[in-house]
């Protein structure tokens, strides 16, 4: 744990290599949702996975945080860990934080999984049919209680007063102008059947970020990166060089 902005931030830090990969999970989730990717990268990279404030073993903020507060929190954490040029990987909520981070701070490379950036999110809780599909994915079955514990477990109805307001802030915040400032090479991995953030948003991100490319996963959902984990890891390794 590191004490940042009045909160003890839970994280794991493992692996070795010249590059440091930082993974940020989606809303209502925790470290375990990004660990399948991190575990495959640890041989040649330092890997840091964070429980974002309000999730996992990291307590909620004591006031209403904006997405910029979350990005600044990650920056302060990485400063304490002597990381100054990370490879940022973010899913959904964590992807939006990663976008803001890369627009403000030195970032080697950026990888996004279904990351919203404007007011176009339908909702953050998953539909039953999506859950049924995900349960057939081996890597997800290997995560204890995946569907019940993580997907949609901290949506608007279940969130505390603070987290509800943060969720509303997240959903309503358009960071298009921030995204335009990103200069680092960016990879955009997206499911064509993403019901949370449509594939059209991926292609719009591609037009906004000068050095970027979309890799669509045909027939996959908001959790495309896990549905095709082997492909995801191979693509990331080729992109970051290790």
List keywords for this structure.
about 240 residues, alpha/beta, Rossmann fold, seven-stranded mixed β-sheet, 11 helices, globular
Can you offer a commentary on this structure?
The chain has 242 residues and is α/β, with parallel strands linked by helices. The chain has one domain: 3-Layer(aba) Sandwich (Rossmann fold). Strand 1 and strand 2 (7-9) form a beta hairpin. The radius of gyration is 16 Å and the shape is globular. The protein has helices spanning 35-41, 67-80, 93-104, 128-134, 138-141, 146-149, 161-172, 176-179, 199-208, 224-227, 229-240; strands spanning 2-4, 7-9, 11-14, 20-24, 46-50, 87-91, 109-113, 186-191, 212-217. The relative contact order is 0.16. Residues 123-129 and 146-156 have low confidence and may be disordered. Helix 1 (35-41) crosses helix 11 (229-240) and helix 2 (67-80) crosses helix 3.
């Amino acid at each position: 744990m590191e004490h940042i902005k009045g909160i003890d931030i839970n994280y794991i830090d493992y692996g070795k290599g010249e590059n440091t990969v930082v993974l940020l999970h989606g809303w209502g989730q925790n470290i375990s949702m990004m660990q399948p990717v991190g575990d495959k990268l640890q041989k040649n990279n330092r890997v840091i996975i964070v429980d974002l404030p309000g999730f996992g073993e990291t307590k909620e903020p004591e006031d209403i945080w904006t997405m910029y507060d979350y990005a600044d929190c990650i920056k302060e954490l990485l400063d304490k860990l002597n990381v100054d040029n990370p490879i940022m990987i973010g899913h959904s909520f964590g992807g939006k934080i990663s976008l803001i981070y890369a627009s403000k701070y030195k970032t080697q490379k950026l990888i996004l999984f279904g990351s919203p950036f404007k007011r176009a999110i339908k909702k953050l809780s998953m539909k039953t049919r999506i859950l049924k599909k995900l349960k057939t994915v081996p890597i997800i079955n290997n995560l204890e209680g995946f569907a019940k514990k993580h997907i949609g477990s901290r949506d608007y109805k279940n969130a505390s007063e603070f987290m509800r307001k943060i969720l509303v802030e997240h959903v309503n915040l358009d960071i298009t102008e921030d995204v335009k400032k990103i200069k680092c090479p960016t990879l955009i991995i997206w499911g064509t059947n993403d019901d949370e953030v449509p594939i059209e948003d991926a292609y719009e991100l591609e037009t906004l970020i000068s050095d970027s490319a979309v890799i669509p996963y045909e027939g996959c959902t908001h959790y495309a990166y896990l549905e095709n984990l082997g492909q995801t890891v191979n693509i990331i390794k080729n992109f970051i060089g290790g």
